[in-house]
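Query form — protein GNAT family N-acetyltransferase

QUESTION: What is the three-dimensional structure of this chain?
INPUT:
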Amino acid sequence: MIDPLTIRIRPEQSADQPATEALALAAFDPDPRVAELVRRLRASDSLIPELNLVAQLEDTLVGHLMFSRTSITSGHQVAPLSPLGVLPTYQRQHIGSALMKHALNWLAASPYPVVVLEGVPSYYPRFGFVPAHDLGIDPPFNLPPAVWQAYCLPAYSSQVKGTVHYPEPFDLNLLHLTGDFF
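ANSWER: The structure tokens for GNAT family N-acetyltransferase are given below.
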């Protein structure tokens, strides 16, 4: 098991881009769509640059996480999380958790009221994610309720409701991931 204190979390740099794309290919193998999403988000105004993070262990990038910004029909800005990937040989060693904790700490001081994601129902509740439908937050397309999750940040109020509108980089008909990954 890796000591979480040896994991360095930092913003992605341009020199990291080939490694983060390769990481996405490995983490979501055999599906290349997440690597394409990484490229599209990186080039988008919707990316939150401070939350385009890598986890580095010695000289190896072992994890990657990206947050973007988008709106919900109530008019609020929300922060979708996608993707979060860890190299297969480093999974279940607290790397994804280290990335998540770092990002959620940053977001706690931000004006964003909520994080949304499509994710494994058994993984994200450990960080405080709940079914988004319970908060009146709907996905832009039909998803199983347990997969569509939300995390309330300090700026959250019950007026944050409605349908999330994913930013343009997600507008790839091939990027509806749920059917293939969950």
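ADDITIONAL NOTE: The domain at 4-181 is CATH 3.40.630.30 (Aminopeptidase).
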